Amino acid sequence: MNADRTSWGCCLAALLALGLAGASQAADGDVGAGFKLDRLRLEVGGFTDHPDAAGDAFVHGAASVGGGTGAWEYALGARLDGFSQFGSRDFSRVRLDYTENYLRWRGEDLRLTLGTQNILWGRVDEISPIDRMSRADLSRAMLDKLPERRRAVPAVRIEHFGAAYKVDAVWLPVFDEAVMADPDSVWHPVDTVRGHLLGIGALPALVGARLRKADHDGSGGGGVRFTAEGDAFDHGFSVQRVRQSQPYYRVSPGVLTAVHPYSTVLGGEFETERLGATWRMELAWSSDVPVTTRAFEYRTEPGFDMVVGAEFFPADGETRVTLQLAGHRTFTDRPVLDRTEFYALTGELEHPFALGRWRADLRFVAGLGERDLYINPRLSYTGIDQHELFIAAHLFSGAAQTLGGHYARNDAVMLGWQARF
User: Fold this and answer.
1) How many other CB atoms sit within 10 Å of the CB of residue 93?
2) Bridge-partner residues for 272, per DSSP?
3) Residue 104: which domain range?
4) How far apart are CA 360 and CA 390, in angstroms?
């Protein structure tokens, strides 16, 4: 839903009031079944050199009710997000969305869950090729970490727990697409002002093009995942037949149509501890990767993804380092506009200091072979219980087809506050 600036301000006031109520409730010790304010967040920032936007603001709140008796438990939750952009392409928008709303039955080695729920398959950070069940949150592009860029999805889920293994079966009876940025937002993957499409680059025919949606009906698909713990390493494999929640845009004169093709995904995953580090790997073969030929014909081709990563603490200190090498290949014998092969190094460095009251973070994505760079330094103060104050920068650069190139004008500095209860 859309709202003017007055409504957006009312949204912020309501969230702050909920924050006070949640803090009061936590102080009274009522943390069991009943109302819970999960999170509040406020972020305001300015762009350093964008021709159409001077800055933007983001406000978020999430609340839930949970409880249960015996083998049964339930959860009811919702979230409210407000977005505002300032400049010649200004807008304000408020969106209400569901979080986890489910009924769950627990047995001795079985768990059945019906309703909207968070389903995050995979082991690696930032880029997970087997994470296909969850609903992507693209309302702010890459600004948040991966778990915050995922939303709950309507699902029927059965989990069986063995002595050293788990079988997880999921069916998505209703398809729900990714949460997208406003079409006027500088974080949208399509820029119809300058004619630019994320993953393809400059297309003059896109200037002033209309965006429309196509295939929103039907099921989202389903899959089965098997994971096991071993003496040497943990491992798993999965089979999915799913629709990607993130849209792919079919190009036609004056119109971009968002489609969500089905794909069969065969995945493998591994994790082990060696040489003072935790090593993780994911592999995924996909039957239908969407592409656009140079004649603007829409096709799907098979593709392969691989991610290898390590997490370690240098000198056994408090500094945490995560590094990942990711690669993708689309197998096609026809010239296409999309990137069919790319490699990237991603990572995060996290260092607490001053007795844990401060934390310095650095996230990055660096393309290998083709110029592509995203850097996100952040300094946080965590000395107030349940609250965090932070300042962060988001810096982009790269070739036209890359993520860094698409958002190259979006360098920004952000100030924020968030609280978890």
Assistant:
1) 19
2) 279
3) 5-420
4) 10
Q: How many CA atoms lie within 13 A of 303 on its CB side?
A: 22
Amino acid occupying residue 354: A
With contact defined as beta carbons under 8 Å apart, do 143 and 56 qualify? no
CA distances for 102 relative to 79, 122, 152, 215, 306, angstroms: 15, 22, 11, 26, 33
**Number of domains, the chain:** 1
| For residues 126-135, average pLDDT | 92
Question: What one-character DSSP code corresponds to residue 182?
Answer: P
Q: pTM for the complete prediction?
A: 0.89
Query: Closest by alpha carbon to 95, among 214, 3, 232?
Result: 3
What CATH number does residue 386 fall under? 2.40.160
pLDDT at 33: 66
- What residues have CB less than 8 Å from 372, skipping those under 6 apart? 342, 344, 365, 366, 397, 398, 399, 402, 403, 404, 405
179-180/165-172 β-pairing: unpaired
pLDDT at 355 over 70: yes
Q: Which helix (H) or strand (E) holds 18?
A: helix 5-27
Taking only Cα atoms into account, the Rg of the chain, rounded to an integer number of angstroms, comes to 22
